Protein backbone atom coordinates (compact mmCIF):
# COMPACT_ATOMS: atom_id res chain seq x y z
CA UNK A 1 0.00 0.00 0.00
CA UNK A 2 2.78 2.43 0.93
CA UNK A 3 4.48 2.02 -2.43
CA UNK A 4 1.13 2.56 -4.23
CA UNK A 5 0.67 5.77 -2.28
CA UNK A 6 4.27 6.85 -2.95
CA UNK A 7 3.72 6.32 -6.67
CA UNK A 8 0.48 8.30 -6.51
CA UNK A 9 2.25 11.11 -4.66
CA UNK A 10 5.01 11.36 -7.25
CA UNK A 11 2.70 11.64 -10.27
CA UNK A 12 0.58 14.69 -11.14
CA UNK A 13 -3.07 14.62 -10.04
CA UNK A 14 -5.16 13.11 -12.85
CA UNK A 15 -8.38 11.21 -13.33
CA UNK A 16 -8.20 7.76 -14.90
CA UNK A 17 -8.94 9.26 -18.33
CA UNK A 18 -6.15 11.80 -18.00
CA UNK A 19 -7.95 14.99 -16.94
CA UNK A 20 -5.56 17.06 -14.89
CA UNK A 21 -6.71 17.85 -11.34
CA UNK A 22 -4.42 20.26 -9.55
CA UNK A 23 -3.63 19.30 -5.98
CA UNK A 24 -2.55 22.03 -3.57
CA UNK A 25 -1.62 22.11 0.10
CA UNK A 26 -3.31 23.78 3.04
CA UNK A 27 -0.73 25.12 5.45
CA UNK A 28 -0.57 27.15 8.62
CA UNK A 29 2.42 27.31 10.88
CA UNK A 30 4.71 26.45 8.03
CA UNK A 31 4.22 24.62 4.80
CA UNK A 32 5.55 21.09 4.66
CA UNK A 33 8.56 21.64 2.45
CA UNK A 34 9.87 18.09 2.24
CA UNK A 35 11.01 17.29 -1.28
CA UNK A 36 8.43 14.51 -1.75
CA UNK A 37 5.47 16.70 -0.87
CA UNK A 38 6.88 19.74 -2.65
CA UNK A 39 7.25 17.77 -5.88
CA UNK A 40 3.94 16.04 -5.36
CA UNK A 41 1.74 19.15 -5.27
CA UNK A 42 0.99 22.02 -7.63
CA UNK A 43 1.51 24.66 -4.95
CA UNK A 44 0.05 25.95 -1.69
CA UNK A 45 -3.69 26.53 -2.04
CA UNK A 46 -4.22 28.07 1.39
CA UNK A 47 -1.69 29.49 3.80
CA UNK A 48 -3.59 30.49 6.95
CA UNK A 49 -1.66 33.52 8.23
CA UNK A 50 -3.54 33.70 11.52
CA UNK A 51 -1.42 30.85 12.84
CA UNK A 52 1.78 32.94 13.13
CA UNK A 53 -0.32 35.72 14.70
CA UNK A 54 -1.65 33.28 17.29
CA UNK A 55 1.87 32.17 18.21
CA UNK A 56 2.83 35.63 19.45
CA UNK A 57 1.98 37.83 22.41
CA UNK A 58 1.46 40.89 20.22
CA UNK A 59 0.90 41.74 16.58
CA UNK A 60 4.00 40.67 14.63
CA UNK A 61 5.92 43.53 13.03
CA UNK A 62 6.11 43.96 9.28
CA UNK A 63 9.70 42.66 9.22
CA UNK A 64 8.76 39.62 11.32
CA UNK A 65 5.96 38.85 8.92
CA UNK A 66 8.20 39.27 5.86
CA UNK A 67 10.53 36.64 7.30
CA UNK A 68 7.73 34.14 7.92
CA UNK A 69 6.06 34.64 4.55
CA UNK A 70 9.37 34.57 2.70
CA UNK A 71 10.16 31.16 4.19
CA UNK A 72 6.91 29.72 2.80
CA UNK A 73 7.17 31.38 -0.60
CA UNK A 74 10.79 30.26 -0.91
CA UNK A 75 9.88 26.64 -0.13
CA UNK A 76 7.77 26.64 -3.32
CA UNK A 77 9.84 28.87 -5.59
CA UNK A 78 8.31 27.72 -8.85
CA UNK A 79 4.76 27.14 -7.67
CA UNK A 80 1.90 29.43 -6.68
CA UNK A 81 1.39 30.07 -2.97
CA UNK A 82 -2.00 31.44 -1.93
CA UNK A 83 -1.68 33.54 1.22
CA UNK A 84 -4.85 34.48 2.99
CA UNK A 85 -5.00 37.75 4.87
CA UNK A 86 -5.74 37.58 8.57
CA UNK A 87 -8.87 35.58 9.44
CA UNK A 88 -8.96 35.96 13.21
CA UNK A 89 -12.16 36.12 15.21
CA UNK A 90 -14.75 33.36 15.18
CA UNK A 91 -13.00 30.31 16.62
CA UNK A 92 -9.58 32.01 16.39
CA UNK A 93 -9.52 34.92 18.86
CA UNK A 94 -6.17 36.62 19.36
CA UNK A 95 -4.98 36.28 22.97
CA UNK A 96 -3.67 39.87 22.92
CA UNK A 97 -6.83 41.43 21.53
CA UNK A 98 -9.89 41.02 23.66
CA UNK A 99 -13.20 41.13 21.80
CA UNK A 100 -16.38 40.32 23.68
CA UNK A 101 -19.18 39.18 21.40
CA UNK A 102 -22.27 36.98 21.79
CA UNK A 103 -21.84 35.44 18.34
CA UNK A 104 -18.19 35.56 17.33
CA UNK A 105 -18.79 33.54 14.15
CA UNK A 106 -21.27 36.20 13.05
CA UNK A 107 -19.17 39.01 14.37
CA UNK A 108 -15.89 40.74 13.93
CA UNK A 109 -13.86 38.21 12.00
CA UNK A 110 -11.77 37.99 8.83
CA UNK A 111 -12.00 40.90 6.44
CA UNK A 112 -14.46 42.71 8.73
CA UNK A 113 -11.80 43.05 11.39
CA UNK A 114 -8.99 44.02 9.02
CA UNK A 115 -11.07 46.62 7.13
CA UNK A 116 -11.76 48.24 10.51
CA UNK A 117 -7.99 48.13 11.15
CA UNK A 118 -6.46 49.21 7.85
CA UNK A 119 -3.13 49.68 9.65
CA UNK A 120 -2.95 45.94 10.42
CA UNK A 121 -4.16 45.01 6.93
CA UNK A 122 -1.67 47.30 5.15
CA UNK A 123 1.27 46.02 7.19
CA UNK A 124 0.31 42.44 6.39
CA UNK A 125 -0.18 43.00 2.68
CA UNK A 126 3.07 45.02 2.48
CA UNK A 127 4.85 42.14 4.25
CA UNK A 128 3.45 39.60 1.78
CA UNK A 129 4.44 41.75 -1.20
CA UNK A 130 7.95 42.36 0.14
CA UNK A 131 8.32 38.64 0.81
CA UNK A 132 7.39 37.87 -2.79
CA UNK A 133 10.07 40.08 -4.36
CA UNK A 134 12.06 38.09 -6.87
CA UNK A 135 9.96 34.96 -6.30
CA UNK A 136 6.76 36.24 -7.92
CA UNK A 137 4.71 33.26 -6.75
CA UNK A 138 2.35 35.05 -4.33
CA UNK A 139 -1.43 34.99 -4.71
CA UNK A 140 -3.55 37.01 -2.28
CA UNK A 141 -6.76 35.64 -0.79
CA UNK A 142 -9.37 37.55 1.24
CA UNK A 143 -11.43 35.71 3.90
CA UNK A 144 -15.09 36.24 4.86
CA UNK A 145 -16.02 38.58 2.03
CA UNK A 146 -19.80 39.01 2.03
CA UNK A 147 -20.24 41.41 -0.85
CA UNK A 148 -18.67 43.53 -3.59
CA UNK A 149 -18.23 46.61 -1.37
CA UNK A 150 -15.89 44.88 1.07
CA UNK A 151 -13.92 43.54 -1.84
CA UNK A 152 -13.54 46.99 -3.41
CA UNK A 153 -12.51 48.49 -0.09
CA UNK A 154 -9.85 45.79 0.35
CA UNK A 155 -8.67 46.30 -3.23
CA UNK A 156 -8.11 50.01 -2.59
CA UNK A 157 -5.88 49.18 0.39
CA UNK A 158 -4.04 46.47 -1.55
CA UNK A 159 -3.39 48.92 -4.40
CA UNK A 160 -1.93 51.37 -1.88
CA UNK A 161 0.34 48.74 -0.34
CA UNK A 162 1.36 47.60 -3.80
CA UNK A 163 2.30 51.11 -4.91
CA UNK A 164 4.37 51.69 -1.76
CA UNK A 165 6.28 48.43 -2.04
CA UNK A 166 6.68 48.83 -5.80
CA UNK A 167 8.35 52.21 -5.34
CA UNK A 168 10.61 50.97 -2.54
CA UNK A 169 11.60 48.00 -4.69
CA UNK A 170 12.28 50.23 -7.67
CA UNK A 171 14.75 52.29 -5.61
CA UNK A 172 16.57 49.04 -4.85
CA UNK A 173 16.53 48.09 -8.54
CA UNK A 174 13.91 45.39 -8.07
CA UNK A 175 10.62 44.83 -9.86
CA UNK A 176 7.52 43.90 -7.88
CA UNK A 177 5.15 41.54 -9.67
CA UNK A 178 1.42 42.11 -9.18
CA UNK A 179 -0.07 39.17 -7.26
CA UNK A 180 -3.30 37.60 -8.44
CA UNK A 181 -6.20 38.33 -6.09
CA UNK A 182 -9.01 36.06 -5.00
CA UNK A 183 -11.69 35.75 -2.34
CA UNK A 184 -12.85 32.90 -0.18
CA UNK A 185 -16.37 31.84 -1.12
CA UNK A 186 -17.62 30.98 2.35
CA UNK A 187 -20.33 33.50 3.25
CA UNK A 188 -23.56 32.44 1.49
CA UNK A 189 -24.47 36.01 0.40
CA UNK A 190 -21.62 35.75 -2.09
CA UNK A 191 -23.45 32.98 -3.95
CA UNK A 192 -25.82 35.60 -5.32
CA UNK A 193 -23.14 38.12 -6.25
CA UNK A 194 -20.73 35.89 -8.11
CA UNK A 195 -21.25 37.66 -11.44
CA UNK A 196 -20.26 41.02 -9.95
CA UNK A 197 -17.39 39.54 -7.96
CA UNK A 198 -16.06 37.68 -10.99
CA UNK A 199 -15.34 41.08 -12.61
CA UNK A 200 -13.12 42.08 -9.68
CA UNK A 201 -11.00 39.01 -8.89
CA UNK A 202 -8.57 36.63 -10.59
CA UNK A 203 -9.69 33.47 -8.81
CA UNK A 204 -12.04 32.03 -6.20
CA UNK A 205 -11.38 29.62 -3.37
CA UNK A 206 -14.30 27.82 -1.78
CA UNK A 207 -14.18 27.39 2.00
CA UNK A 208 -16.55 24.51 2.54
CA UNK A 209 -16.07 24.59 6.33
CA UNK A 210 -17.62 28.02 6.74
CA UNK A 211 -19.92 27.72 3.75
CA UNK A 212 -21.48 24.65 5.40
CA UNK A 213 -21.62 26.36 8.79
CA UNK A 214 -23.37 29.46 7.45
CA UNK A 215 -25.62 27.77 4.91
CA UNK A 216 -26.94 25.26 7.47
CA UNK A 217 -26.77 27.66 10.43
CA UNK A 218 -24.80 25.11 12.42
CA UNK A 219 -21.72 25.92 14.50
CA UNK A 220 -18.79 24.04 12.97
CA UNK A 221 -17.29 23.36 16.42
CA UNK A 222 -20.34 22.53 18.54
CA UNK A 223 -20.42 18.82 19.42
CA UNK A 224 -24.17 18.97 20.13
CA UNK A 225 -24.96 19.75 16.53
CA UNK A 226 -22.01 17.98 14.92
CA UNK A 227 -24.37 15.41 13.42
CA UNK A 228 -26.05 18.09 11.30
CA UNK A 229 -22.84 19.79 10.21
CA UNK A 230 -22.45 17.98 6.91
CA UNK A 231 -20.89 19.36 3.75
CA UNK A 232 -22.71 16.62 1.81
CA UNK A 233 -26.04 18.27 2.62
CA UNK A 234 -27.93 18.74 -0.67
CA UNK A 235 -28.03 22.53 -0.17
CA UNK A 236 -24.25 22.66 0.13
CA UNK A 237 -23.86 20.46 -2.94
CA UNK A 238 -26.17 22.72 -4.93
CA UNK A 239 -24.23 25.78 -3.78
CA UNK A 240 -20.99 24.08 -4.84
CA UNK A 241 -22.51 23.25 -8.20
CA UNK A 242 -23.61 26.87 -8.69
CA UNK A 243 -20.11 28.17 -7.87
CA UNK A 244 -18.51 25.68 -10.30
CA UNK A 245 -20.82 26.53 -13.19
CA UNK A 246 -20.65 30.31 -12.61
CA UNK A 247 -16.84 30.24 -12.42
CA UNK A 248 -16.75 28.20 -15.59
CA UNK A 249 -19.01 30.69 -17.37
CA UNK A 250 -16.64 33.52 -16.39
CA UNK A 251 -13.57 31.35 -17.06
CA UNK A 252 -12.51 32.16 -13.53
CA UNK A 253 -10.15 29.68 -11.86
CA UNK A 254 -11.76 28.18 -8.77
CA UNK A 255 -10.37 25.89 -6.12
CA UNK A 256 -11.77 24.27 -2.99
CA UNK A 257 -9.74 24.56 0.21
CA UNK A 258 -12.25 23.41 2.85
CA UNK A 259 -11.93 20.00 4.53
CA UNK A 260 -14.30 18.49 1.95
CA UNK A 261 -11.51 18.55 -0.66
CA UNK A 262 -9.38 16.17 1.42
CA UNK A 263 -12.20 13.70 2.03
CA UNK A 264 -12.39 10.89 -0.59
CA UNK A 265 -16.17 11.18 -1.09
CA UNK A 266 -15.93 14.98 -1.06
CA UNK A 267 -13.02 15.15 -3.51
CA UNK A 268 -14.79 12.79 -5.92
CA UNK A 269 -18.00 14.85 -5.76
CA UNK A 270 -16.11 18.10 -6.28
CA UNK A 271 -14.38 16.75 -9.38
CA UNK A 272 -17.74 15.41 -10.58
CA UNK A 273 -19.19 18.91 -10.15
CA UNK A 274 -16.43 20.37 -12.31
CA UNK A 275 -13.72 21.49 -9.87
CA UNK A 276 -10.17 20.99 -11.17
CA UNK A 277 -8.22 22.38 -8.20
CA UNK A 278 -8.36 20.92 -4.70
CA UNK A 279 -6.39 22.09 -1.69
CA UNK A 280 -5.91 19.83 1.33
CA UNK A 281 -3.78 18.89 4.32
CA UNK A 282 -0.51 17.09 3.58
CA UNK A 283 -1.73 13.78 4.98
CA UNK A 284 -4.54 13.51 2.41
CA UNK A 285 -2.55 14.26 -0.75
CA UNK A 286 -1.37 10.76 -1.70
CA UNK A 287 -4.73 9.15 -0.89
CA UNK A 288 -6.76 11.64 -2.93
CA UNK A 289 -4.38 11.47 -5.89
CA UNK A 290 -4.62 7.68 -5.86
CA UNK A 291 -8.42 7.80 -5.70
CA UNK A 292 -8.69 10.28 -8.57
CA UNK A 293 -6.38 8.18 -10.74
CA UNK A 294 -8.93 5.34 -10.49
CA UNK A 295 -11.97 7.41 -11.47
CA UNK A 296 -13.43 7.74 -14.94
CA UNK A 297 -14.72 11.29 -15.34
CA UNK A 298 -17.83 10.56 -17.45
CA UNK A 299 -18.98 7.94 -14.95
CA UNK A 300 -18.21 10.21 -12.02
CA UNK A 301 -20.13 13.08 -13.58
CA UNK A 302 -23.17 10.88 -14.07
CA UNK A 303 -22.97 9.68 -10.48
CA UNK A 304 -22.58 13.24 -9.15
CA UNK A 305 -25.61 14.37 -11.13
CA UNK A 306 -27.67 11.70 -9.36
CA UNK A 307 -26.35 12.80 -5.96
CA UNK A 308 -27.76 16.30 -6.55
CA UNK A 309 -31.29 14.93 -6.50
CA UNK A 310 -30.98 13.17 -3.12
CA UNK A 311 -32.40 14.78 -0.01
CA UNK A 312 -30.29 13.17 2.75
CA UNK A 313 -26.57 13.76 3.34
CA UNK A 314 -26.35 10.19 4.67
CA UNK A 315 -27.65 8.80 1.37
CA UNK A 316 -25.10 10.83 -0.56
CA UNK A 317 -22.26 9.37 1.51
CA UNK A 318 -23.48 5.77 1.34
CA UNK A 319 -24.14 5.87 -2.39
CA UNK A 320 -20.85 7.62 -3.14
CA UNK A 321 -18.94 5.09 -1.05
CA UNK A 322 -20.63 2.30 -2.99
CA UNK A 323 -19.69 3.99 -6.26
CA UNK A 324 -16.07 4.50 -5.20
CA UNK A 325 -15.76 0.88 -4.06
CA UNK A 326 -17.04 -0.28 -7.47
CA UNK A 327 -14.40 1.82 -9.24
CA UNK A 328 -11.68 0.02 -7.27
C1 LIG B 1 -13.13 27.18 5.26
O1 LIG B 1 -13.88 27.95 5.89
O2 LIG B 1 -13.54 26.19 4.63
C2 LIG B 1 -11.67 27.40 5.24
C3 LIG B 1 -10.88 26.72 4.44
O3 LIG B 1 -11.15 28.32 6.10
P1 LIG B 1 -11.03 28.13 7.69
O4 LIG B 1 -11.25 26.67 7.97
O5 LIG B 1 -9.65 28.61 8.01
O6 LIG B 1 -12.10 29.02 8.20
MG1 LIG C 1 -13.25 29.89 6.60
Explain how this protein is built:
It comes from Salinivibrio costicola. By secondary structure, this protein is α/β, with parallel strands linked by helices. It has helices at residues 2-10, 35-40, 50-54, 62-75, 111-116, 118-132, 148-171, 194-198, 208-216, 234-249, 264-273, 285-293, 297-307, 313-326, and strands at residues 22-27, 44-48, 81-84, 138-142, 180-185, 203-206, 254-256, 277-280. The chain has an 8-stranded parallel beta sheet with strand order 7-6-5-4-3-2-1-8. Magnesium ion (MG) binds next to helix 9. The site of phosphoenolpyruvate has 10 residues, from strand 2 and helix 9.
Helix content: 40-55%
CA-based shape: globular
Average of per-residue pLDDT values = 95
Q: Main sheet: which strands, in order across?
A: 7-6-5-4-3-2-1-8
Listed once per kind, the bound small molecules are:
phosphoenolpyruvate, magnesium ion
Strand share of the residues?
A: 5-15%
Largest sheet descriptor: 8 strands, parallel
Number of helices: 14
The total strand number stands at 8
Structural class: alpha/beta
Distance between the termini: 14 Å
Query: What is the element string, with H for helices and E for strands?
Result: HEHEHHEHHEHEHEHHEHEHHH
Rg estimate, integer Å: 20 Å
Unreliable segments of 5+ consecutive residues: none
What would a concise description of this structure say?
The protein has 14 helices and eight strands. It has about 325 residues and is of the alpha/beta class.
Amino acid sequence: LQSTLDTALASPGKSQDGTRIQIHLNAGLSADSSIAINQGVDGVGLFRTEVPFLMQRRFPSEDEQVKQYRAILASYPDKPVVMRTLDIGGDKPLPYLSVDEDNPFLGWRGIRFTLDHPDIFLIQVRAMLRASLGLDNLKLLLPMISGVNELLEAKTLIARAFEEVRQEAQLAGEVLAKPLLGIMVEVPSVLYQLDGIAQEVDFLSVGTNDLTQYLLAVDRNNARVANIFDALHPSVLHALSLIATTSDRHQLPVSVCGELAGDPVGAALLVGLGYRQLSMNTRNVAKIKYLLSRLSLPRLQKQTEQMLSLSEPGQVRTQMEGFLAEQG
